[in-house]
Amino acid sequence: MAKIKYTKNELKKQKDQLKRFRRYLPTLVLKKQLLQMEIRQVEVQINEKSRLREIIYADLMSWVHVFGENLNIAELVQVKETDLDTANIAGVDIPLFNRIIYENRPYDLMFYPLWVDAGVQKLKELYSAEVELTIIMKQAELLGEELRITTQRVNLFEKVKIPDTRENIRRINIFLGDQQTAAVVRGKLAKNKLVREA
Description:
This protein has a two-stranded antiparallel ribbon. The protein has a single domain, classed as Helix Hairpins. The longest helix has 82 residues, at 116-197. Helix 1 (8-61) runs antiparallel to helix 3 (116-197). It has three helices and two strands, in the order H-H-E-E-H. It is mainly alpha-helical. The two termini are 51 Å apart.
């Protein structure tokens, strides 16, 4: 516990500090609740995107016997850039997935079989699902870290700062009350002494 002065100025300072803590705590609690809600929503999105990725992957596996023709169609699917946005949720900047921009790779229709267009499309879907899932997991990580910090702050105010400040106020009030009582007693003793002398 920090050393405090037993003065009226310190009492006012402690009371102002307690008022600030009580005003700030509900905001932190609200932020904590908002982050918890957002994390639950992101976890639902992770589950949905994981299932979607598994469906796309299973569908792609049906092409595996066709891919066995010693053709590398993965070279036809090259990512040019990933288009991302950012959003601010409860003070946390999180990435948002928009789309993947692919390079247009022309290919010789005489060399590649007819199914290559559908295979390229399935690979693009799988890449998009993978990237989107990675970004959603990053969102969960960022929100989880902010939730951890906010929870620590809430606990700091609820369990340390507010109780310590209340205790300081109580101790200062007791000290000042004792000082006032002692002053009254000294005054009465001095008055009695003057009355006896007179």
